Amino acid sequence: MHVVIVGAGEVGTSIAASLAPDHEVVVIDIDSDRTEDLKYQYDVLTITGDGTASPVQEAADVANSDIFIACTDDDQTNLVACGTAKTFDASFTIARVKSTDYLQTWERDDRAYGVDFMVCTDLLTAENIVRVIGLPAAVDVDPFAGGLVQMAEFEIGDDSPVANQTVMEADRFESLTFVGLFHDGEMTIPRGDTRIEPGDRAVVVGSPESVQEFANDIAPDSTPNQADEVVIVGGSEIGYQTARILEERGLSSRLIEQDPDRARWLAEELPDTVVMQHDATDTEFLTREHVDEADIVVSALDADERNLLVSVLAKRLGVDRVVSVVDSADYVTVFEEIGIDVAINPRTVTAEEITRFTFDSVAENIAVLENDQAEVLELELADGCALVGRPIATLVEEIDAKFVIGAIIRDRRHVTPRGDTVLQPGDSVVALVETSFATELAAMA
Amino acid sequence: MTRTIDARATLSYTGSIVKYLSAAMALPLVIAVIYWEDIWVFTASIAIGVLIGLTLERLDPDPELGPRDALAVVSLAWLMAAVVGAIPYLLAGYGNGSALGHPINALFESMSGFTTTGATVTAEISFEQHSHAVLMWRQLTQWLGGMGIIVLMVAILPQLAVNGAQLMKSEAPGPGLQKLTPRIAETARALWLIYMGFTAVLMVLLFVLGVTDLAPNMTPYNAIAHGFSTLPTGGFSPEADSIAAFSPVAQWVFIPFMVLAGVNFALFWYLLRDDPTQMLENTEFRTYLGLVTGLAGVLSVGLFYGGAPVTEIGGLTEGNVENALRQGAFQVASLMNSTGFATADFAQWDIQTQYFLLLVMFVGGSAGSTGGGIKVIRWLVVLKTLRRELYTTANPDVVRPVRLGGEVVDENVVRGILVFSMLYLLIFALAAIFIELDTARVGDPLSGIEAFAASLATIGNVGPALGPLGPFGSYEFLPNTTKVLMIVLMWIGRLEIVPVLALFIAGIDD
Q1: In B, which residues are within 8 Å of A263 by CB distance?
Q2: Is residue A21 part of a domain?
Q3: How much is the pTM?
Q4: Strand, coil or helix: what is A376?
């Protein structure tokens, strides 16, 4: 593949590094020092110039690119670069943005800005934080369809309410589907009468809310619920998005922000979050507000030093789990060595997302389960493909293979598949499939 | 110190409004012709009104309004409307022994009409004492004032549309003005059309009740007259017994229309535009409906268990389910949003029940309705702010905006509402004390609760109060000083205080 990357910062460099071995990569950056460095560091072609300018894009042969990635630190630059690339008929453009406003516009109409796929750094980071703090009981969690669908694998304990129930009995969660059961490491495809036994691992696919609900139900102790205290320090975009997603999942948190105007704005936007306006590095304040009794503290301030300070303070006060945003990728290990439970770097998260997307553009997304016994695939159904036009129940009978459809995304909406649901061209489906059959299934879509 | 009101421009605008308002007297003139009554009362009134209007208009042929002038225009227009509206009362009442022959009484009745208060100074309401035309004019003033004189003028006069939003904001009941369309004249027209629509529906219903003998007293004249005073939450009736003059069926028909009149009319506009969620999810609307139902329920239960003696008008409610329900629902629907119709002489009810009615009068209608009072939305904001203050006293670092149905209420609006409510209660209390002292001075004192009810009934544009000022009583015996105060109370109550005060403190440099 011919890949063009605009922006040679941390994100661009990281993407270039993972793609360079297998693909033809061209990196454009306006800073000659960066391009010089990159040229010798990795096996890529570099161009020094403005990535939004058409002569520069022409030099990078954008017209023949398979993937065009704009990932500078500036939203507008990325959007204009994608727009320019579309004038060369670039086949697939990816833009990195910080502002969720652009994301919302793009979600209304994905022709907007000439962007085919948009990655919102702050939102992605917040989703990551929520995943980390939200589902500690899950053995594995993967987002699909840009976060609309989650796949999660849970170990079913003895005291779990679904233990010793049949799948049909356990199937009481709206928009959640049991797609696989691992019994003693052996995969079975769950049918209505399959019994879920303690010690099994269950794979579920559904909306993030329903997965959260399921986690609450099967592992009430370790999964955060209404009774748990989540404190978010710093009302940055990441802090705000984290609180917002937690609200969506029915968890309310406390959000501490020092700037009065920003605090007021946050309080207006987040009706179910308690917003406090104070300096979060004030230990007296933290004790007074019993932050030490919080179950989870998320530090999402703008500066790494302050995040470090808050995280260390929270740990010393005795908080169970401390998650910190770390702006500079180099410090991630430092944070974790000090004892911060999870350090998340927005740029790494973004680079990973873009890379993953690039790799899996045919079968859009893949998660591999339990020593490669099964895979969870996201497939986009083409017009006239073998899977459309019949109810799922008939489909399963006709195709002699182990596979389960866990979720359908139709017009950016989540549809829960049941036996009588009919697949339509244009749908995206998230399916669990036996690894040996994966290639065949992907070919049918 | 600069005087910022442009007096000439203000008066000129007021003149235009008065001129067109006088034209509305054509309707009672037609009534006078139909009933073979004296046509000179209204012919002369129209002539005087138009003349006053034209003279004022001449003061400034090309007026330009500033923001403070808009407040002044609204206040003055309402005052002048009441003055011009009093002319027919004066002409008709002069020399025939009617209370309306006295200028203060005439102005009281006229102000009470336009502000949709419904308090009357005529002890005897009958066609022997007053002509059909005068009584119809009384009803019509309520209808004109209901949706707002200014709203009407903005809807029909292109020259007012320029400053329309400013003018309408000063007149609109409740905090702020809801602009429904990009052009303010369109909004004004839409509101008036909805208002006219409901009025027409009620008139037709009442007419049908009359011709089918379901309500024998409901003559075509009465159907029109009561249609004019229900939707504006007015309360005037050409019948001495108010709505008690009609059959129970007719009384039930009035109840939903009175409730409707207390709803924000903008919500009906959304309803017509196929957007029912605006209405169904509106916090004020839901609270208003909840309050009407709840309070009516409590009153009905109270009446059923003997909260009122058997009264000549209204009858027995104890142990009578239908009558207890009807009297409870009617009185709450009428008093809460300040209509002021009555189907029972509640001034003779048990004192506890009377206190309950006083509480009901305090609520008011919704913002953007034709009802008076403090308004449901203000109570909601005041209570929510109170709760917020208590919470933040305990948790000083927490930032918590006041929300209304999920929507954040701007802090400036919150402050405005608190100031308004405080001012309203202060004026209400001071006026009550004044009324108490003034009636004692002339040796005909009202009791404490009666004085408070009288103050509330006028500033809240309710109309009937308690005791001798009850629904079948009259304000006539009050001393003139008290009547003048009440005229002012009705005026500032309808315009929600601020525009009128602004008129007096316009010279203060802030």
Answers
A1: 399
A2: yes
A3: 0.78
A4: strand
